[in-house]
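Students often ask why we bother encoding 3D structure as a string. The short answer is that it lets us treat folding as translation between two languages. Here is a chain of 144 residues written in the first language.
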Amino acid sequence: MSHTAAPRTVDADSGMQEGTIFVDRRALAFKERALCGALNALWKENSTGVRAAGAKFLTAQQQVILTLNVGEQTEHRTLGAAELAPLLIGYCIGARLPLPASAVKTVTVNPGGVLLDFMLAYSTMPPYRGMKTPSARVLGEWTR
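And here it is in the second language, the structure alphabet:
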């Protein structure tokens, strides 16, 4: 008998759906330095000439005010949580951080940074496939 547990997405506003028995939740927190570093990595790859130098987090408005260096000038740009989501996801993909594609994704601006949250809800348990004994690794495998 084949049994697969397909993840179901969850409505972020109403919480878990009826029948949800298992939730897989992951979160990535970007403090000011990490947020600026992620944005700079994206902008450098796209040759924009823009560098994020600082960030101020506005929790009530769910916005971030970025201090940007554009050539010799300094500018301030305001980004909302919805605008930050694709930028942060793009950074994670480029940094090869594993992300669940079918999860509900939310971005929350907190006093200390930005939180990128992923949530999958299951109506059945994922199948248990057994544990494998890890094989010994040689030093060369750790240095790749």
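Translate back mentally: The helical segments are 32-45, 81-94, 139-142. Keep this in mind for the problem set.
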